Amino acid sequence: MVRLTVTENEKASSNLLYIQSTLGEIFSSSGARINLEPCKNRAILNIDCPESYAEIIRAEVFDKIAEIVSVKYKYDFFSERVKTVGLNPTEKELLLTGLIAADFKEDKRYAFSKLPVDFEVAIDGAFNFRMQPMKSKWKEIVEYVPLTFLPSQLKDFVTFLLENKKKRVYVDNGKVYDSHYRRLKRCQLLGKSEVKIVREVLLSNCGEVELCGEIPSADEYFIKEFFGDRVYFSKNYTN
Fold this sequence. Notes:
Elements: E1 2-9, H1 14-22, H2 24-30, E2 33-39, E3 42-49, H3 54-81, H4 89-102, H5 104-113, E4 120-122, H6 123-130, H7 132-144, H8 151-162, E5 168-172, E6 175-177, H9 196-203, E7 208-212, H10 217-227, E8 231-233
Parallel strand pairs: 1-4, 5-7, 7-8
Antiparallel strand pairs: 1-3, 2-3, 5-6
Helix pairs in contact: 1-3, 3-4, 3-5, 4-8, 4-9, 9-10
């Protein structure tokens, strides 16, 4: 067996739970054993897997770590520094989500490239010591965000982000799936419960949305507001 160890500040142990929950299927199918434990203000996730799966497991885990950095760390960074007025709390969350989604692929690719090549990684350590250029880029973005941001500007900003995007996501009874019908859970990293569906959709970097079943009215409103005629309705959709 090969052990992969991921550590994080104990206050951010939910990041390790994100790895555990999103990769549960591959852990189970590979015969990996998972153990999450606290130790001296650190949360530790130990993953013991057969040697034949070690590189595959490491790649999948590091992919999720890169998501944690490019979503959760970026969210925390922006929520502390973006001090706009003119939006209500829900709209402010959508603005932060849009800022994350704008460079998500680029940030994730960069974060992944800066992770160590061995089988032990501290997420906060890698972020603080290996990713300073990305943090500098985030600071520049914050400086460009207007002090006053109106709902009409939010709509313009989000619809601009959606331009030229082609992939479709599926919202089925409140759960969001990508074009291959794989469940998306990135919004778990944002913590707050408001308009979770539309924030998940924005983080998917899609260009079209298909709705099935019933979704909360606030999510429905913003999905229609942002996607317009690129919203599709299945025969089981309930409005």
